[in-house]
Amino acid sequence: MAVSAPSPETTAALLRDRRTIHLFTDETPPDSLVRDAIEVARWAPNHRLTEPWRFYLLGDTTTTAIVELNTQLVRARRGARAAKAKQARWRSIPGWLLVTSTRSPDDVRDQENYAATACAVQNLQLYLWTHGVGVKWTTGRVTRDPTFWDLVQVDPEVERLVGLLWYGYPAAVPTTKRAPVECILTTRP
Ligand SMILES: Cc1cc2nc3c(=O)[nH]c(=O)nc-3n(C[C@H](O)[C@H](O)[C@H](O)COP(=O)(O)O)c2cc1C
Q: Looking at the predicted structure, is the pLDDT value of residue 119 above 70?
């Protein structure tokens, strides 16, 4: 049966051209666009249809609390000046979306849930990219601080972090590279 899909060239260009965005303009993308992206993201493959992804659209109160936690962590490790610079930068991030996957007592299922949610994140990033919105997927130190979970009101025994996504309209699009396919593809008889 024929499947409906964009052309191979269009698809390849989307996959190749999406970049992690570190610098955003001041404009915040509308929540409705993020909701549309989540609607698309959840069509990711997921074993046994566990649909393990959970999305938390974070508002000002929560993001301010995360920024302040991160500022404290940076101050403790690198001093007041570095903390102030980081605080200013983090305050300027336009959109914040937390993505978790539901835990399973079964290790295999837990790993599959994480993998499925990572696929969903990529779906989400690609969809947003087609709307001119860039994402930075972060798993930085702040997300590993135990108090982080209190700030986002998620029980870490029930869900695990997949990523804290920053999103917005790119102020700059970086370049990056990949190793040649020959370095990663091995053919077995
Ligand atoms: C699971 C995961 C965690 C990541 N965490 C971070 C992070 O904490 N900080 C960061 O700058 N980038 C992070 N990234 C983004 C990568 O640095 C980025 O994907 C990589 O540099 C390749 O760039 P590209 O996405 O533009 O191809 C993460 C990506 C993934 C998949």
A: yes
From the list 65, 93, 55, 25, the residue with the least C-alpha distance to 150 is 65
**What residue spans define the domains of the chain?**
19-170
165 and 117 in contact (C-beta within 8 Å)? no
Q: In this structure, what token pair is assigned to residue 6?
A: 């964009």
Q: Is 138 in the pocket of ligand 1 (CB under 6 A)?
A: yes
Residue from 70, 111, 136, 141 to probe ligand 1 pocket by mutation (most atoms less than 8 Å from CB): 136
Pocket lining: 173 vs ligand 1, CB cutoff 6 Å = no
User: How many other β-carbons are positioned within 10 Å of the β-carbon of residue 114?
Assistant: 19
Q: Whole-prediction pTM value? A: 0.97
Ligand 1 neighbourhood includes 143 CB (under 6 angstroms): no
Using 50, 70 and 90 to split pLDDT, how confident is the model at 153?
very high
Residue nearest to atom 25 of ligand 1 (CA): 20
How far apart, in whole angstroms, are the C-alpha atoms of residue 68 and residue 64?
Answer: 6
Nearest residue (by CA) to ligand 1, atom 8, is 138
Overall average pLDDT of the 19-48 stretch: 98
Domain 19-170 fold is NADH Oxidase (3.40.109)
